[in-house]
């Protein structure tokens, strides 16, 4: 099994029971332990903080569908050209949408992806935050409200977009390597 | 008390006991409840995920001193021109360093700040991650190792830099407003 | 059959015999008539000029293998985020290399793609030409020669990289749409 | 006679009869063999593919006047700071327009050049394609249609702009050197 | 007394009487001789040309208040990340406005600073000139006129913004060092 | 006589005697009153401050030749795409060098201009200051010293480069229009 990053930071061994159980559940549900989890597993406090935030954001309660959150993940990761996140979340978009070409389009250029105008506004905001966050103004939030997004929805869009701006940089900084299984999923 | 952001998302009321206790401890230690916490308090699960990751990163165990972590916070926030984070973490650098002009220099242009060559390498890596993460390569990690940083230290630098790339964008996206008290601190 | 671009420029009808024969050969060999050919078919002189240059560059005599030429095509198209070219030439890289993840890596971030140092130098030159051609200097050509590329090879690298800087812009300007068949090829 | 580029790729010698005739016609009409032709003449198939496309685009049938096509050539080449193309096509604009300062203005900053609003829209589209092709959208094509450009005209604008994005990069990559005669022409 | 720049260019010694008198007046009024003056004092003709232009612009007759001119100075210097000018003119904004947080906001991100819409338009023009002067067009001047600025006011805005684009670069090029006294002023 | 800028700011009338004498000398020496002087002549204090600094910098004592100062003027103005300054100082380079193609090359892309390595280092520093002044470091000054430039020379390079970063922006902000006579000079 290759190292999940370019850093020499092996997982604690043995893993605490709760962590092992979580990893086992990943294998059961996804067929793999995502390498991002193996990467963080050298320090269980860090792993727990990461999964705590990730699961709240991507799987928790929100008016944004899981697919929409994954769409934001991919559009942001494409701006940052993050190989790990594009691979893993591109697969998620293909799977959740049942439309492989949607995942590809978001990886390549979200502006030509076949999404609704409301989703396009959501992605435009996420990409603006990614590339020029200091210029975000009330008019940009109003553009989201005009598409029916509530203030809570705006928070959620911003939180997902913000999170992947962290994860993309973390992944690139340590050369995080995606599990080989993602490439063929849901094609 | 002005709203902590431009979104209409009031805190849960009353706050859960544990949250209230945490806020009380902030007032006791810092004299204020940082507005970032008031901003997240509309949803306690989100607040807890945020403080969990923040406290682990900025206050937890690391070979990077707390001041060094704050220096990364400011250098990254300056690239992203995040008013909230520059105000709050600029104050932290002034306080922890006892050198007000160091805080100012990091806000204005980290390249002229009076830091050690080792710290400069650390900040260069953090800023590279911020501006061009897709170009980070083994040579950049080697440059850190040449200054005596271990792989664990590299992880910590990357994690702090990554975190503020999230927080900066979150703060700008919702127009987070720093507590007025920061401006005069440790001048 | 959907229009190959956002412009209302139907193909000449009927196609001249030689063009029809060429399209038939495409179907026989590739299973499709690539939409780029259908797009140009509103004017046979333009179609012939395009295919003349394309075939000479991508299929003609060169020390660069066909796979290497396709690798340049994808790396350049990724910089320009051209959906059409990334889809079509990403498929070509997957097919010619027999390595689907190589195609994906070049689409996402060529810097982490598993290529030889010689190929990396070739792609670095192609991407430099794409992003900052006015800065290309003798030192950049020398870097290629140091990897064993001849002056003729440098010409060929430049010609392929130049060509896709044209095609990417043409495709984006008219919203050229890739054939649906590419997405699933060679996964 | 100095080499037409920084590469050591001498022309085939003797030139094929048809090529020699074409070069002779250039001397007769322009007083020179443009160095771009001498550069390609190391391989007659490449030369023919290049001149085939060039002549079709710049001299073939189009609703864009030859001057307008040269204006696009210069505006695009200015964005890419291509010495060869600015020199050769700047001279062409001066000659075709009879207005030397128009050629200069397009070389320096097309935004202040004295052109019609319709031509300005054409140049804005060409420059947008040059600098940010992935963002071109239907609204940009509509802006051209609002100035009376047909879909065929849009194709032609895009094709000329695309072509010079190729030629600029090719010229810079091999350090193509303009014939000295251009500088004084039509001043 | 540390050198005012990284260059070894000591002031003429003794200073001419008029220069000495000017420096004495600075000490009397500001408590310091600003290091920019000490930097230029190696050549009195250069010093006089600099102070001549500076005093005319920043202290001379204008419909822009002195505070507004200092606001432009800081907003422009922030774009250029000039440590010297941000330190000196940030202090001036704090002093003239009596609002320390206004100075900080302009240093960090002028877009969130609490200024009037008219002042915001003025700063937008100054920042546009700083970052993309070649794109300034009549519409940008009209936007100022719509806020009641006269053509003379537009000249003054442009002149101050232009001046700091010079001074910022001069200061960074020679590593000009701000007097330590500025940091604590008017906090 | 057309207005020298897009602003409605006519010269004081009549001009003060000294100003009129200066303008008369311009006509005698250059054949024209440069429009930049006519533009500033609405306010004689501003005109005098400008000419005071300009003449000191461009005509005063320096180890940089007048041609070298004009070369910096053009290289900087090309980065900022300033039509006025490129026209006026491009003519000056042609005149002082006796080499029209040198003026053209500096306007188009200074990197391919036939200058000495020492002059190239000078222009590289001027262009670095123009595009990324906040990154200038001691190593950049050392690179100039390695070519034999003294600290005084570095000051002069910086001062000329800084000045044109001001003038370029001023000229673009008010749409300053070059005298028609420049275009044909010294071709």
List key phrases describing it.
187 residues; 9 helices; 0% strand; homohexamer; mainly alpha
Kindly state the mean pLDDT of chain A as a whole number?
Answer: 97
The helix-strand sequence of chain A is HHHHHHHHH
Show unreliable segments of chain A. Answer: none
Structure classification of chain A? mainly alpha
* Helix count from the secondary structure assignment of chain A: 9
Oligomeric state of the chains in view: homohexamer
* Radius of gyration of chain A (Å): 17 Å
SS strand fraction of chain A: under 5%
Coarse morphology of chain A:
globular
Sheet having the most strands of chain A: none
End-to-end gap of chain A:
25 Å
Instruction: Give helix % range of chain A.
Output: 55-70%
**Protein chain pair with the most extensive contact, residues per chain:** A-B, 46 and 46 residues
Number of strands of chain A: 0
Descriptive overview:
Six copies of one chain form a homohexamer. Chain A has 187 residues and is mostly helical. Chain A is 65% helix and 0% strand. Chain A starts with 16 loop residues before the first helix and ends in a 14-residue tail after the last helix. The model of chain A has no long low-confidence stretch (mean pLDDT 97). Chains in contact: A-B, A-C, B-E, C-D, D-F, E-F.
